[in-house]
Amino acid sequence: MAGSSQTWWRRASCFADPAAEIRFALLFSCFVAPDPSVPPFLPVLPSHLAVNTLKGLPAQGSHHNRRWRKQLPRPAIPQRVMLWTCIASLLWPARCAACNAFVPEGRAFCEACDLTVLPIGRACPTCAMPLDRGGACRGCRQRPLPFAAAHAALAYGAATTSALLRWKHGGHRHIAPVLAAYFAPLLALAVEQGADLACPVPLHPSRLRRRGFNQALDLLRSAQRRSRPCDLAISCDALERTVDTPALGHEPPRRRREIVAGAFAVRCPESVAGKHVLVVDDVMTTGATLAECARVLLQAGARAVSVAALARTV
Ligand SMILES: [Zn+2]
Ligand SMILES: [Zn+2]
Q1: Ligand 2 centroid vs 241 CA: distance in angstroms?
Q2: pLDDT per residue over 10-59, tens digit each?
Q3: Which of 25, 26, 151, 287 is 20–30 Å from 194 (CA)?
Q4: Within this chain, do residues 273 and 211 fall inside the same structural domain, yes or no?
Q5: From ligand 1's centre to the CA of 172, what distance in Å?
Q6: 232: nearest Cα among 219, 251, 248
Q7: Cα of 40 to ligand 1 centre, how many Å?
Q8: Number of domains present in the structure of the chain
Q9: Domain that holds residue 235
């Protein structure tokens, strides 16, 4: 019976894209069924009958129905929010963060791009470089970075790079919450490890004016929304960039350290004194920028500095 009704729906459907059809059905169900847990494709009933039948309550008139409805438990997601979510997904369907192809709701990348998104698994605890064994890497043993811990979610390259470039330089700020899904576990991990204040790597005011947003702050806020209830205080103004440094591009590590030396300052030392600060950036390359931020924070009295980046060059 279910099969035949599906066939009927398929024949009657004017949607070429099955995803659009499901979105339409969800939207339609919001108008018909007062409970969001009611799946689409149910017979269309007047709303009071739908409530009473589905909840096993006696079907009564609208006056009684209002009274019953008040006694029903409130759904986890308010119906109004769900309605707007359905309308938004109908008007702005989900797209791949890297190539802009249509994707199913809730997915960051299309199947082809997803194959090239590589999570960083086991890594050096102080520079987040992937390692196939435990302990620090050779570089950190020779020249330790001033981090209590370093974490990165993804390897920089392929679809991850495309998504980051579209977000930072293409102005597609809606990509931040999508990528924050990969970053949120790192935020929870940092909280577990004792971080009590998060600072995004600041942009120089002139670059902030040109770009219009700080991508590290966008990432941090989006990830924090996802990882509640483990709230972490965010300070946007504890750190400041006092020198408008040029893009580091493909500069060698020593040159990178020279460029960023003295480029940061702590604006409010009292806000970081005695705190374990988590410094957040979108990309970690050699760690020179994050190390300079850590140096000034430790100088200003921070108890420890950990760093976290969405992507890391490997
Ligand atoms: Zn794609
Ligand atoms: Zn290392």
Answers
A1: 26
A2: 444 444 455 555 555 555 444 444 444 433 333 333 333 333 334 444 44
A3: 287
A4: yes
A5: 15
A6: 219
A7: 29
A8: 2
A9: 111-312
